[in-house]
Amino acid sequence: MLLSRKHRSAAPRGRLLKWAVLLLWVAITVLAVPAASSLPDVVEGKASAELPRGAQSTKVEELTPRFPGGELAPGIVVYARSSGITPADRAKAETDRRALAPLAARPIAPPQASGDGKALMLNVALPDDDTLDDKARSLRDQSRAGAPDGLDIRLTGPAGSALDVGDAFENIDKPIFIITILVVTAVLLLTYRSPILWLLPIVNAAIALQVANAVVYLLGEHAGLYVADGMSTILNALVFGISTDYALLLLARYREELRRHPDRHRAMAIALRHAAAPIVASAATVSLGLLCLLAANMGFNYALGPIGAIGVLAGLVVVMTLLPALLVIFG
């Protein structure tokens, strides 16, 4: 009698709790999206960021700004023609020297010719800071515009190298993200063969990713967390994979309990109680393993540790709170 009365009193609380959790996550998502979209603003663009910590080359890079011109990253624009540079090519290089002056951190010297007369070099000094990628891209695009036929124009030097690295990550970011979503969707469809059920883990993972990106941005902006180029690519795949894995564990347990308990609120409560321990243990193990990368020397590996752990914990929190509410609401 007392037990049944207890279940009846707990039922209304459970029915209200799922809506409260859903509204809370709607508010969190609304707040997280603007911060998540600002994540590229805290990506470290300096050339020294990827060097091994404590190495002599890193120490030199850190000391270089103390010297005149040490805070600059040269962008070397090369104009090449296999048959020899023409007067039109020289005029193009001289025009670029004047046009690129607003981008340069110091006056641009006249173009220098190679010994064999088949190339010209223009040295444009750019500031080695977080604007380096954008200014290097403008330098490359402006120098290539209006080139005479047959003239090959390339950007090299530290500024060109930094731009190439950024472009490489940018070119693979979207394809990897799309492939990740397609693979996760295929796994969910093959597992559940439901036109609706597969959407819930996808929505769950998308929200976890926004939360993770927002936390990384806030820590990078206000706590000095190092965010390397290309980190978002790995974070996307990691959060979607982790969130889907934990969601599958919870879903399997929930479906088992539904066979024993027709009340989905009670079934979810029991499923959470039994699934929480292995899911939390898995998240803790993966997070601690990623944090071991803090001992790494290379900048990218070092950054992957805390940022990966943030992604895992974001997936855990969303799976253990939002997903149960969505499953109970949609039955």
From TrEMBL:
Signal peptide: none
Membrane topology value: Multi-pass membrane protein
Gene3D superfamilies noted in UniProt: Multidrug efflux transporter AcrB transmembrane domain
Record-linked InterPro entries: MMPL_dom, Mycobact_MmpL, SSD
Residues spanning the membrane: 175-192, 199-219, 231-254, 275-296, 302-330
Major place of residence: membrane
Cell location: Cell membrane
Gene Ontology cellular-component annotations: plasma membrane
Keywords, sorted A to Z: Cell membrane, Membrane, Transmembrane, Transmembrane helix
SUPFAM superfamilies (UniProt xref): Multidrug efflux transporter AcrB transmembrane domain (SSF82866)
Residues of the SSD domain: 197-329
Family according to the record: Belongs to the resistance-nodulation-cell division (RND) (TC 2.A.6) family. MmpL subfamily.
Identification of the protein by name: SSD domain-containing protein
Organism listed in the record: Actinomadura soli
